[in-house]
């Protein structure tokens, strides 16, 4: 059985970048957000239940979840959010499980789970051999996300405030990857290679 790593970090910390580096080193990367987008994408496995629960108004012309409308609904009605999660989460778990089986069958040496909210939800602890946290200051998170998305600094601050604190995230970490302002992509790669080596990659 390959080791299973959890990979997490706040918005803009560099988690996806680290995940891609690990994948380039041969790890099987399982990205819960990506699977969640797939099951709510055109003809996705969650779409029939979304259609029957919320109605056709939340399904766009391509047969995918209308994210903008759903975000508005979830914002005004917290119950809608939990209803959506009750549909999507079990499917994400199922599809993740299928990918884990495929990774094991294909002989992957390491399985890496990209879990943005790992520190926020305790349920992962038992399934993972170790947790890797990508860490940087809030200022750098704000800068990276603003560059990438055009969100305002205040909007990014709001998202950061809604996530686990840096301290809480570091508390669940077995390994912390520092991805600070001065860290170039080459340095990040070198740091990730060292961490990967710890786990036999
Ligand atoms: P999110 O939670 O929002 O998905 P994330 O933690 O996955 O964010 P990334 O998408 O990996 O973060 O990184 C955010 C942005 O910052 C990306 O555009 C990425 O290319 C850039 N970035 C991350 N680390 C570095 C670095 N060390 N040097 C230069 N750019 C970086």
Automatic annotation (TrEMBL):
<dbReference type="GO" id="GO:0004140">
    <property type="term" value="F:dephospho-CoA kinase activity"/>
</dbReference>
<comment type="pathway">
    <text>Cofactor biosynthesis; coenzyme A biosynthesis; CoA from (R)-pantothenate: step 5/5.</text>
</comment>
<keyword id="KW-0418">Kinase</keyword>
<keyword id="KW-0173">Coenzyme A biosynthesis</keyword>
<comment type="function">
    <text>Catalyzes the phosphorylation of the 3'-hydroxyl group of dephosphocoenzyme A to form coenzyme A.</text>
</comment>
<keyword id="KW-0547">Nucleotide-binding</keyword>
<protein>
    <recommendedName>
        <fullName>Dephospho-CoA kinase</fullName>
        <ecNumber>2.7.1.24</ecNumber>
    </recommendedName>
</protein>
<comment type="similarity">
    <text>Belongs to the CoaE family.</text>
</comment>
<feature type="binding site">
    <location>
        <begin position="12"/>
        <end position="17"/>
    </location>
    <ligand>
        <name>ATP</name>
    </ligand>
</feature>
<dbReference type="Pfam" id="PF01121">
    <property type="entry name" value="CoaE"/>
</dbReference>
<keyword id="KW-0067">ATP-binding</keyword>
<keyword id="KW-0808">Transferase</keyword>
<dbReference type="InterPro" id="IPR001977">
    <property type="entry name" value="Depp_CoAkinase"/>
</dbReference>
<dbReference type="InterPro" id="IPR027417">
    <property type="entry name" value="P-loop_NTPase"/>
</dbReference>
<keyword id="KW-0963">Cytoplasm</keyword>
């Amino acid at each position: 059985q390959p080791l299973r790593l959890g990979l997490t970090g706040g918005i803009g910390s560099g988690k996806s970048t680290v995940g891609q580096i690990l994948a380039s080193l041969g790890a099987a990367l399982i990205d819960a957000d990506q699977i969640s987008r797939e099951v709510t994408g055109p003809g996705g496995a969650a779409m029939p239940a979304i259609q029957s629960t919320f109605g056709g108004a939340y399904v766009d012309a391509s047969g995918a979840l209308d994210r903008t409308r759903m975000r508005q609904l979830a914002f005004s009605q917290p119950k809608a959010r939990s209803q959506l999660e009750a549909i999507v989460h079990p499917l994400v778990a199922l599809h993740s499980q299928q990918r884990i089986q495929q990774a094991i069958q294909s002989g992957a040496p390491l399985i890496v789970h990209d879990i943005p909210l790992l520190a926020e939800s305790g349920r992962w602890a038992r399934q993972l051999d170790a947790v890797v946290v990508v860490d940087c200051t809030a200022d750098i998170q704000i800068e990276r996300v603003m560059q990438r998305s055009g969100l305002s600094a205040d909007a990014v601050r709001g998202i950061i405030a809604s996530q686990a604190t840096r301290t809480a995230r570091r508390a669940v970490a077995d390994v912390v990857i520092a991805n600070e302002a001065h860290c170039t992509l080459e340095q990040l790669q070198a740091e990730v290679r060292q961490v990967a080596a710890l786990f036999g990659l």
